[in-house]
Amino acid sequence: MLSFSQVVVEKGGRPILSDINIDLNEKRIGIIGRNGSGKSTFARLFNGLEKPSSGSITLEGSAELKDLRRKVGFVFQNPDNQIVYPIVDEDLAFGLKNLKLPSATIKERITEVMARFQIEHLKDRLTHQLSGGERQMVALAGVLVMQPQMIVFDEPTTLLDLWNKKRLMRAIADLKEHVVLVSHDLDLLREFDRVIHIEAGRIVGDGEPNAVIGDYIARSL
To answer: Which stretches make up the ABC transporter domain (predicted)?
Structure first.
């Protein structure tokens, strides 16, 4: 589905990622690594938030940036980084209006996604008055209304309490879309299909979750 070929990312002449060659087809993929390892930069390449200094990224054979951005959604660690409008309903409609969709289609998509996550009661709420957990669910809903094929999550549970963390992970587990999850919480990834370990800008582990996580823990001792 998504392929990286000889991808390199440099910033200020310093390598952040080097020689990334990988094909990603699994339904649930975890990404782990120490702070500063390059894992977030790697994740941001998935939908064009970061661009490679060299190499190529293709989605279903297309290297067009517009295809990555249309088909791969991104959920930030802090939902305030992606919630734009003051009213929940307006925020969810923002991306859809940019697609110039009919009003009826926009309303239908928003209603469907809000019902899916049981957050219909938030529709007319001020976004800045929502709890952290509610804002994260609104951020996820804002991605889902765009109907991506894949959703990338960058440490989405870091700012959440235990109840909201479990709620978000249940929502992620129920997604029909492909999921890529960057996390320091290793237990969240043990039931995934595949885990990728990034260290010093390179892929040093890739495969069955328990094996890759076990090696990561051993390297950290």
So the answer is: 2-221
